[in-house]
# Entry
Amino acid sequence: MNKPRTLFDKIWDRHVIARVDDEVLLYVDRCIIHEGSNHAFETLRRARVSVRRPKQIFAFADHYVPTDPARRAQGLDGIADKAVRGMVELLQRNTREHGIALFGLGHERQGILHVAGPELGLCLPGIVLTGSDSHTSTHGAFGCLAFGIGASEAAHVLAMQALWQRRPANLRITIDGPLGFGVTAKDVIMAVIARIGVGGAIGHVIEYAGETIRRLSMTERMTVCNMSIEAGGRAGMIAPDETTCTYLAGRQYAPDAAAQEPALAAWRELASDADAAFEKEVSLDARAIQPMVSWGTNPEQALPISGAVPDPAREPSAERRAEVAKVLAYMGLTPGTPLQEIRIDRVFIGSCTNGRIEDLRQAAAVAKRGRAVVPSWVVPGSASVKREAEAEGLDRVFEAAGFEWREPGCSLCAAMNGDELRPGERCASTSNRNFPGRQGPGGRTHLLSPPMAAAAALQGRLVDVRRLGSGS
Amino acid sequence: MEPFTTLRAIAAPLDEINVDTNQLCPSRFNKLPYGEAYARVLLHDRRFNADGSEKPDFILNQEPFRRARILIAGRNFGIGSSRESAVFALRAFGIRAVIAPSIGDILTNNCFRNGLLPIVLPPEQTERLMRQVLQQPGAVLTVDLPAASIIGPDGALYRFEIKALRKRRLEKGLDEIAVSLEYRQAFDAFEEAYKREVPWV
Ligand code: SF4
# Structure
């Protein structure tokens, strides 16, 4: 009998081209890139090599595009900052020169690579997908091995359609039980990170399993896998099932009708064998998960909304006391303050974590119960999400509630396109990172779910969406 | 790429945990092409005030640490975004080796691809080195890559782990793409069989 294998093992083994010592040359089925990948093309040029499989590379303009509707309407001319415009232009030139498909400014399929990519059917079960962005882990929701790479690794993939890698270990996170009212996939992954820590999955690929995960939609699974990297994971993945196949059916880069049968048969074989060994196992009870909000400057520093800002004096070690005190100073928070009393200056709903149609529907359902009292942005994750939301009238719901409806892109998640917080500004954000300066120098970020963000907009403070009275 | 053999240099203590890549290189500098300009970018918002003047308190703005080529940091060094510019910044500043109890996966890969040696030592050992260089500013460490060891300012010997292939590439300064192109035939054979089996990708 063959040794039982995990989902990850099966994909890894099938993609090994060569082995040297403990590294393997791993075949890459598809690679997604964005404006930041321009460094990789530069390396390629210096090495005088061309792109080996341009048809397996897909480019998106997302990090540097303006999301302000008036400026967006002017195309490239709408980008005032010359360096920023240069990044978008350079991606156009590089992709044209090498024959790579570009979903760029003005394209009807443009969007954040981790939102628009899945819509195109780029991530298929069983493949290896790399992306020049750490949140490439998102695509693991489809049962592929998807991970982020740096610019020289991206150059290597462009040149070889393969990558030298060391085999990571397997970590299974099993979540069982029903999710409570008002608890979303974002709260699930934030609870996981709060539990295992930002270094909890370093060197591992996470497989999310259990009944709670099985019941999640593709959008929700993507939210979970998206933040695997915030726990240090090399990748996050979920075994493909009916939900996966239904989502992929008919998408541009998914198997066509003729290939459906054999593809589905192969995908069914991918799930981890019943007795496969995981180096590490963690399990969580979904019933215990509450709406979460981060209070600190990394994603593990998060608590249920019913909690209070921690007191450094209560920390177990001198190192921890100093760390928490420093974090609170940056965040401008006082120990013991109930999280629900924290006033916010702005709200951001969007990003590759929570910029999909279901996220916007959930946020809109809350938004329509009141009026935003602080500047609140809704930034769809892709042009398709935007069209779909507008067809459903979500844009009008948001605008009627005083939210700003913007154009698709990364926007305030990474503050690369000029959308940024002012120093000291406090933002309730559906994105994935709250590191110091992530949303602009000196900016303060509280991570939370789309309904929680919408609720915060209505009250001008962090609030438990479950306790938002009707009409308040 | 510049080969790496033995490095005798001043080590700077960055006595903090979770120094993520966005601190190493704030997002807005990702646009810069690779080059000397990155020297100023390293930990920019920690080193400089809004008006561009230096923050004299910050360790890397102080003598002799301005000349450090080795960085000692707390756990979870270089976690976060995959931006390679974080490594460009370390390199341009002059850093060739980083020592920490744990280092982010992507940053580790990026270090090796840019001639920078990331070294993971157990927390007690990192702390001891950190203390020593704090107490004796300008203390010199020796990083001996062929022997996979470090000699502390007090002559103590520390061994670290490094995989053979990575070590060879770093010692010889081999360009990874050039090495990989030798695997073309293996690649073609693999791909042909793979595409027959998985024609839908
Ligand atoms: S939305 Fe944020 S995390 Fe996602 S790809 Fe864009 S910048 Fe990265």
